[in-house]
Design a protein that fits this description.
about 130 residues; Thrombin, subunit H; 6-stranded antiparallel beta barrel; about 45% strand; globular
C-alpha cells in the first residue's frame, strides 16, 4: 500500500517551496555526512554463521547510516558495521536494519544501537568537503 502524497507548501516574499511527503521523510535527527574517504563492511549472522559484505555508505550520521550492499538484508536483523578511514582510524558499530530504501532493493537504513558520538565527532573533525544531506 502506498502512502498518499501530501504537499507541504512554504511561501514568503523571496522563497517558494513545495515538498512531497516522501521528500520530508527524514528519519534522522542528526547531520548526515556524505563521505568517500573510508572503506566499509557489514557483518550479519544467520543460521549458517557470519556473513561479511562489502558495502557503500550513501550517508552517515552519529545515529545511523544509509548503505548499499550487494545482498538482501532482513529488516530488523542485527548487523555490525566496520569503517576504516584513510587515516587508519577504525570504528566498529552495532546496529539494526530498520528499513529498505524505496529507490533500490539493496539500499538499507541502519540505525545504530546507541548514539555514536565519537563517530559523529570524528566525521565533523575530518570533514573536508561540505557535503551534507
Amino acid at each position: 500500500m502506498t502512502k498518499p502524497t501530501l504537499k507541504i507548501p512554504f511561501h514568503d516574499d523571496l522563497f517558494n517551496l513545495s515538498l512531497d511527503s516522501h521528500e520530508v521523510d527524514n528519519r534522522r535527527k542528526t547531520t548526515r555526512y556524505i563521505r568517500n574517504d573510508f572503506a566499509a563492511m557489514i557483518i550479519s549472522s544467520n543460521l549458517f554463521g557470519l556473513k561479511k559484505y562489502s558495502t557503500r555508505i550513501n550517508d552517515i550520521s552519529s545515529q545511523g547510516a544509509s548503505v548499499s550492499v550487494n545482498q538482501k538484508l532482513a529488516i530488523k536483523s542485527k548487523v555490525t558495521l566496520y569503517f576504516r578511514f584513510k587515516t587508519g582510524k577504525i570504528f566498529k558499530i552495532e546496529g539494526r536494519v530498520v528499513r529498505q530504501c524505496k529507490t533500490s532493493t539493496y539500499c538499507y537504513g541502519i540505525k545504530f544501537t546507541k548514539q555514536e558520538n565519537s563517530l559523529g565527532d570524528y566525521l565533523l573533525e575530518t570533514q573536508t568537503d561540505l557535503l551534507f544531506k
